[in-house]
Amino acid sequence: MYSIQSDPFVRNEREHAIALRSDKLAEILEQHASLHDREGSFPFENFEHLKEAGYLALTVPQEFGGEEASLYEMILAQERLAKGDGSTALAVGWHVSQVLQLRIKQSWPRELYADFCRRAVEDGAMINQFASEPATGSPSRGGRPLTTAVRTENGYLLSGRKTFSSLIPILDQFTVTAFVEDEERTGTFYVRKGPRVSIDETWDTLGMRGTGSHDLVLDAVFVPVEHRIDICENEGAVGAVMSDHGGGLLHVPACYLGIAWSARDFAVKFATEYRPNSLPGPIADLPHILQKIGEMESERITARTLLYSVADRWDQLPSERAAMKPELGLAKTIATNSAMRIVDLAMRIVGGSSLSRSLPLERMYRDVRAGLHNPPMDDTVIAMLAQRAIREASS
């Protein structure tokens, strides 16, 4: 296990405790990561371990018994958790990041918000928001949802299909976006599992096979009017509505860097121990192996430095969050591309045996590829940076 004391991004005792818990959990999650990857099964037992360790309350406000982790603390926890199982880390990342965003936005009606937070702490309740659809793709591209919300006397009837619904096998509640036809705009709704809510088990992918990201199907599901979140923002909500401006999405790059970290550790250990009979010592002594190890470190240190510095700035300077969207996106795209490069280098160090399913590297190689398809996309980030540079040059 990588020494916490030697990690420059663990700065105090609280962060040390958060990191240590994730390290311990990662060792547990790693035991069944290969099995769930092969089967494409959802790791229910992993979430029992997360619940027992209090991890599911990581970002819940302290007033409800949670840890109220900052963005920096959340990515610290997530990166280390992903060393054990990337699928579990990414899946739970949507929950802890959603709870962080809810804490920032304070947009839910107080009774609903307080009830969920208490259940998250006491019962391990989790949440995620589902917006992607087959016809519209990622909501970040601006497509109008085909899921509809039809007004009734006391609420709405929701019908439609959501894709990439991570965590859906274990969730009892979630939020969804739907087009409110009589208003000609998109609304957000809090939905509980029940009649007319079903799961179409479509998730059979190259990587991140254990996230349970099946399709969610809603067939005229009734949602009471008080559970329409977007119109509750100024009607009995917890406080003034704010935005995290995408800060919570840093759980995504943290996860992929955690996977890459694990691949790096495996490859370095292999290089120091593998002694073919054609050499007087381990392959770590060879110049081309040292070059690859150094390249892994360069990629990893650069990506982590950007990620943690952006998160710290986001925590310390709330008034600058709106202007930080390009940096948040850059941290994600640098991290995910660096993660792919690190895992590739690790496999080059280990050689042909890295392709074997008996080793974890081929799973890590597949898992990190998924980072390209998590928002924000590389082209969107590059466009944001270019547009800002043009504005600055023109001012």
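Next protein, fold it too.
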Amino acid sequence: MRVGVHINRFDHGGGGPALGAELAATGAAAEEAGVSWLSVMDHYFQMEFNGGAEAPMLEAYTTLGYLAAHTSTVRLGALVTGVTYRHPGLLAKIVTSLDVLSEGRATLGIGAAWYDREHEGLGVPFPPLAERFERLEETLRICRQMWDPQANGPFEGKHYRLAETLCVPAPVSSPRPEIMIGGGGERKTLRLVARYGDACNLFATSPEEVRHKLDVLRGHCEAENRDFDEIRKTVAYTGEPATDGDLAAFTRDIAGYTKLGIDTVILAPRIGEPAEWIERFVAPAVQRLAELD
């Protein structure tokens, strides 16, 4: 099992002027520790349970571009982009640019969006849930079409219409950037994973719950004639042992997931200065998880 790091707070003690240096140090520490994935949130406002809208928040893809320039091996992505945040053609172009400039390390992490306050606050339309899922599926189709060099042409959907799907330069990743769909909704989200996703991201609620979600995904894969094993499975872990630096407790928590085929556990502690924490806790955690059977 591999380890990823999710940066979800920007409340550095030095304020905004210190964030660039902290992010550069975080990227260096992550690669030195053997971390395989580095992500940021994609939100306009900080989430209510993580400091609230008045807390600092950086724009996701600008931040990922900065991280790309300060790393060379770790995979980069947003965990996850809300489908409402950007027009799908623009989103595909943004992720392509990240993929090109990172030499093939970009993942498109995407979901149906949920944070109504940030939409209302900045005047971004926030349609009902059913429509957001319709837009999510159309966005996935548009991105796949834009990343297919043989498929340039119009796209006609219920919510989006594109006269052309040109994407030049093309992504570096082959055959295209990875698509990670976040969430564990059993009727819609996991069906979209089976139909369009290269990876899924579930919450590490419990091994039993994650096993159930994967069984549901397997059923959708069978219905879609999709190979379940070719989908990369990841979980987001927000337990206190990671934030507290309790490696033994963390290892006990994670042990139950090792038989489920989880590729990567993504650690998401709510701290604004992650570089030192990566050196102190994540580096030994990488080694400990590599030893688990």
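About the second fold: The two ends are 9 Å apart (CA to CA).
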